[in-house]
Write a structure and sequence with these properties.
This protein is an all-alpha fold and 219 residues long. The chain is built from seven helices and no strands.
Length: 219
């Protein structure tokens, strides 16, 4: 029961903590876009729902062999869920004058991700009440990795004025990490879990450090 409650409130709590930190760290700054990014993240889940429904209608949710599991993990879940977040971040957040560098990209991407993960967890439990809540909890935590990867590269696109390549790098990078984690969950291959978590943590840390350095140079 405790895991269930935590899995439902973790992403909203992360969003509140991030907003509170930004409000404290940059008092007097405009935060309307940051708040809207969370609710646009909830809306972005519609893209994933459509892709999931189409896959269900055509029978692609019948994971009877390795190829089906790969397709489900990387295309339906990985790409399907990251596409909606990408569209919101790239086409609604990026054009704003308040979005200037990779650090901004990561912050907005995290808020979008928290919004999307909030609704994913709720809908999953409504449709599958006996779903393993520890997986929902893990998804909420690991989604931070996807958000950092996408936000960093899309933010780099604004700094380098090379939005197409960097935006696609952000989308497919996030989809790849998301697909890898989903594949591990579907195959229950725990030998891959720790290398994935350690590698993801290192990459996320390096991107965060790099984004701060670039932001300082930009200022």
């Amino acid at each position: 029961m405790l895991t269930l409650i935590i899995s439902l409130i973790l992403s909203p709590i992360f969003a509140v903590l991030l907003f509170s930190f930004m409000k404290y760290r940059f008092s007097g700054t405009y935060f309307g876009l940051l708040i809207r990014s969370y609710f646009w993240g909830i809306f972005s889940s519609l893209f994933a729902a459509i892709i999931f429904y189409v896959a269900y209608a055509f029978g692609y949710l019948d994971l009877k062999n390795l190829r089906r599991i790969l397709f489900f993990s990387f295309i339906i879940i990985g790409f399907g869920q990251e596409l909606g977040k990408f569209i919101v971040l790239r086409y609604l957040m990026l054009p704003s004058k308040h979005f200037n560098n990779p650090s901004d990209g990561i912050i907005y991407s995290l808020m979008i991700s928290f919004g999307a993960q909030t609704i994913y967890n709720i809908v999953t439990l409504l449709l599958v009440p006996d779903f393993d809540t520890s997986i929902l909890l893990s998804n909420s935590l690991v989604s931070i990795v996807y958000a950092v990867v996408m936000g960093f590269f899309i933010g780099m696109g604004k700094v380098r004025n090379n939005r197409l390549v960097d935006s696609l790098s952000g989308l497919f990078g996030a989809a790849f990490f998301h697909g890898c984690f989903e594949f591990i969950i579907q195959t229950q291959d725990h030998l891959l879990l720790w290398p994935f978590l350690i590698g993801s943590a290192v990459i996320t840390f390096l991107l965060l450090v790099k984004s701060v350095q670039i932001s300082d140079e930009y200022r």
